[in-house]
Amino acid sequence: MSAHGPMPRSSWIFPALAVALFAVATGLGLTFTPSAAGLVFAAALLAILFGTVFAAVHHAEVIAERIGEPYGTLLLTLAVTIIEVALIATIMLGDKPVPALARDTVFAVVMIVCNGLAGLCIFIGGLRFKEQDFQVSGANLYLSVLFVMATITLIMPNYTLTAPGPIYSAAQLGFVSVVTLLLYGVFLYTQTIRHRDYFINQASGASDDGSPMSNRMLAVSVALLLVSLLAVVLLAKKFSLVVDIAIASIGAPPAFAGVLVALLILLPESVAAVAAARKNDLQKSINLALGSSLATIGLTVPAVAVAAYTLDKQLVLGLNAQEMVLLVLTFIISMLTFGTGRTNILFGLVHMVVFAVFLFMVFVP
């Protein structure tokens, strides 16, 4: 979907279908079962859910054009994070406890955006333009906050003494949640007010003034964005049933559920990031990719922690040794890739190889 020109029909049809599907499924008690009717319901649910997520991101892009950069990419990131929190909380806190889902999803998001998405954007941009520029100052701010957040939420739980790893005690979890929120809040202040110029690549022709549009279109997009987000939240429970049975049917490991949730919520944002790289605006691609990682940890972990504490559910956060190696490797190559301000296809290929290793190890640990 494009944010330019007339509003595409799919941007309002899918949210309407999502609300209608939820109403019909709830009223008739429809659910997913391993049968022909259940498969039809699952296929319809996935198609409508994906379409609604794309619609939400489209309306966020329309609003983003009015408010300009870097607020635009920030709005996209926050919209996707709301969807992510809804899906994780619904699945993790459902009838069948999945205490490690938040950890698996957060780790999958970091690996997908820092290796898969960033690598793909850099590789495509390198093929079209040989080299692309971006703001080193902004990338360094992203990475410094990301490294700290990822370490204290995904690695540190394995080495605490108050509670046996890989979990935090209630006091530790509360402290870490406050710290991550504080870090993310100060980062947003830096990105949007204090040092906005760090996150805008003027050479790419990006403008922070926003594109003019009618107030009517803006109001419609705001309303449909809210409806789209609400529809995804309402269908999250139905989606969790499909994920559970699908994983059981194919014999996939539990961590695959986190990968599925991450892929669902990141797909529309990934399309926007790749499109920006093709237009020689790698800065926007980096804002979308690294911004997603920060928002995922800075907002998802505290939100899920509050839900887990309120409902007295266990929350597993610590990664295993293999995953920690991949995370540290991602830190190292990210520092090398984003430390010069210029990229080429080899940087992109290196990140994509690490992402391929991550996916392979999910199924063959």
Outline the structure in words.
The protein is an all-alpha fold and 365 residues long. It has a single domain (10-363), classed as Up-down Bundle (A middle domain of Talin 1), CATH 1.20.1420. The protein has helices spanning 10-28, 36-67, 71-92, 101-129, 136-155, 170-194, 215-250, 255-278, 282-310, 321-337, 345-363, and strands spanning 132-133, 342-343. A two-stranded antiparallel sheet has the order 1-2. Helix 3 (71-92) packs antiparallel against helix 8 (255-278), helix 3 packs parallel to helix 9 and helix 5 (136-155) runs antiparallel to helix 10. The radius of gyration is 20 Å and the shape is globular.
Summarize the model shown:
With 365 residues, the protein is mainly α. The chain has helices at residues 10-28, 36-67, 71-92, 101-129, 136-155, 170-194, 215-250, 255-278, 282-310, 321-337, 345-363; strands at 132-133, 342-343. The protein contains 11 helices and 2 strands; from the N terminus they run ααααβααααααβα.
Second CATH tier, the architecture:
Up-down Bundle
Per DSSP, the total helix count is: 11
In terms of DSSP E residues, the strand content is under 5%
* Total beta strand runs: 2
What share of the residues lie within helices?
over 70%
Oligomer: single chain
The CATH homology group name: NCX, central ion-binding region
Radius of gyration over C-alpha positions, nearest whole angstrom: 20 Å
Which outline best applies? globular
Strand order of the largest sheet: 1-2
Task: Please report the distance between the alpha carbons of the first and last residues.
Answer: 37 Å
User: Can you identify the CATH class?
Assistant: Mainly Alpha
Instruction: Kindly identify the CATH topology.
Output: A middle domain of Talin 1
Please trace the helix and strand order, writing H or E for each element: HHHHEHHHHHHEH
Largest sheet: 2 strands, antiparallel
How many structural domains does the protein architecture include?
A: 1
Low-confidence stretches: 204-211
Structural class: mainly alpha
Keywords: Membrane, Transmembrane, Transmembrane helix
GO molecular function: potassium:proton antiporter activity; sodium:proton antiporter activity
Membrane topology: Multi-pass membrane protein
Pfam families: Na_Ca_ex
